[in-house]
Amino acid sequence: YTTYEHTLDRRAREAQMKRFCKAQAIQRRLEEIEVTFRELEQQGIKLEKLLRDENGSPADQQTQWTNQLLYLVQKKNSLMTEESDLMIAVQELKLEEQQRQLDKKLRSYMNREDTLKTPEDCKAEQEILAQLLKVVDERNLLIHIQEERRLSEM
Question: Which of 29, 54, 91, 96 is at 20 to 30 A from 138, Cα to Cα?
């Protein structure tokens, strides 16, 4: 190995470790969101029961319960949006890893001299390149979806 190859390997390991840490953080946050969803659901059920059962309650008490229920709905919608963003991030991480692997394979074919390549090698190189372009397009689509969502939220 040359110094250049060692540097490439080290950078690849560092990038892979960053993706792994990011994936773990996303997984933890998704689990937290799931727990919060359950808590919000329980609070919502209690408030709905109060609103249905307490017809004799003062109007301002019912208004307060209704406002609390609306707040819970807003919070749940906010968490759903965050969850959706995290799922897109997970998909992006998967595509990033797939792109890295394909890129590595493609480099190994491209580093060979053309005179030493068999027709099968040339075909495999073209297939890997096509797969790599497909992954790049999928990543681009994810970014486009995220941008559209952000613009629509504004």
Answer: 29
d(C-alpha 114, C-alpha 121), whole Å: 10
pTM of the model: 0.78
- Distances, alpha carbon 88 to alpha carbons 31, 55, 64, 150, in Å: 16, 44, 36, 13
95 within 8 A of 131, measured Cβ to Cβ: no
CA angle at 40 for the pair 37 and 45, rounded to the nearest 5°:
125
- Give the closest residue to 71 by CA, choosing from 43, 29, 34: 43
Q: How many CA atoms are closer than 13 Å to the CA of 38, on its beta-carbon side?
A: 5
Half-sphere exposure of 153 (CA within 13 A, CB side): 11
- Strands (E) located in the chain: none
Structure confidence by residue, pLDDT tens digits, 54-99? 766 787 888 888 899 999 999 999 999 899 999 999 999 999 999 9
Nearest by Cα to 113 from 102, 101, 104, 125: 125
Supply the Cα-derived Rg of the chain in whole angstroms.
Answer: 25
Of 50, 93, 99, 57, the C-alpha closest to 72 is: 50
By three-state DSSP, how is residue 2 classified? coil
